[in-house]
Amino acid sequence: MVKAIYLIKRKSGMELEAFRNYWLTTHGELALKVPGLRKYVQSHTLLSGYKKGEPVFDGIAEVWYDDTNAMRQIAELPEARAVNGDGREFMDMGASALLLTHEHVIKDGPVNPSMVKFVAFATRKPGMDVEAYQAYWKEHHGPLAAKIPVVHRYVQSHVLISGYRSGVTPRYDGIAETWFDNTAAMRVSETTPEYRAVQADEPNFIDPGNYAFIITKEHLML
Questions:
Q1: 175, 120 Cβ separation under 8 angstroms
Q2: For 21-79, what is each residue's pLDDT tens digit?
Q3: Measured between alpha carbons, how far is 89 from 75 in angstroms, rounded to an integer?
Q4: Is there a contact between 99 and 170 (Cβ–Cβ < 8 Å)?
Q5: In whole angstroms, how far apart are CA 169 and each of 16, 18, 71, 136?
Q6: Of 147, 168, 179, 194, which sits most exposed with the smallest number of CB within 10 A?
Q7: Where are the domains of the chain?
Q8: Residues 135, 128: contact at Cβ < 8 Å?
Q9: Predicted local distance difference test score (pLDDT) of residue 105
């Protein structure tokens, strides 16, 4: 399957509460009318993420399709065009972005809507080949992160290799999602030796100068 991940920043001047309500209700209801979607999740940045200023994104939307051909066909439907047109009503289109990815579940555990989801946006180390980056991230770094004891679920979404063939560099090379019981559990994870091993490994494949994250709550739409 293909997972489209929309990195969403709200429209300039729009109040946060109005943005979140519009995205969850008006826009969400439009999206649910699009046939052929396999799964649809909104993840909204926690209010605590605004205490020190604007987060890099106000949230992400994840939409699953059978494959890229199905995604192209669905994009031509009037329901899909209505969703795309509606994005301008609440999103800053210039500050938002889209990544087409394959999902890799590294640690598969039960999750529920009360949990928090840490969403990290990563770019590969300068000079590192895309395929080498993806292999290292999945096969070496992934198992390290999966060992952190308070992590319930850990998923990597790798940008499709085809996304690099047009000569356009994607905003990020991948997105990591990690589920915790709450933010307190997340802080506890940072005190563990397993977390320190993950941190020590990051410079081997990640560009530290182009890394960002948000902490979110999920809304399962479909």
A1: yes
A2: 999 999 999 999 999 999 999 999 999 999 999 999 999 999 999 999 999 999 999 99
A3: 19
A4: yes
A5: 30, 33, 21, 20
A6: 168
A7: 2-220
A8: no
A9: 98
Q: Give the fold, CATH level 3, of 2-220.
A: Alpha-Beta Plaits (3.30.70)
**Would you say 174 and 210 are in contact if contact means Cβ atoms under 8 Å apart?**
no
Instruction: Write down the pTM of the prediction.
Output: 0.97
CB atoms within 10 A of CB 144: 17
pLDDT of residue 167: 77
Residue with structure tokens 């802080």?
Answer: 187
What is the per-residue pLDDT across 128-187, written as a single tens digit (0 to 9) for each? 999 999 999 999 999 999 999 999 999 999 999 998 987 778 999 999 999 999 999 999
Nearest Cα to 100, choosing from 6, 23, 36, 35? 6
Determine contact, residues 139/133, Cβ cutoff 8 Å. no
The answer for residues whose C-beta is within 8 angstroms of residue 60's C-beta and 6 or more apart is 5, 6, 7, 8, 42, 43, 119, 175, 214, 216
Instruction: Please name the helix (run of DSSP H) or strand (run of DSSP E) that holds residue 99, with its range, or none.
Output: strand 97-107
Backbone angles phi, psi at 53, to 5 degrees: 125, -175
* Helices marked H in the chain: 16-22, 28-32, 68-75, 78-86, 130-136, 142-146, 183-189, 193-201
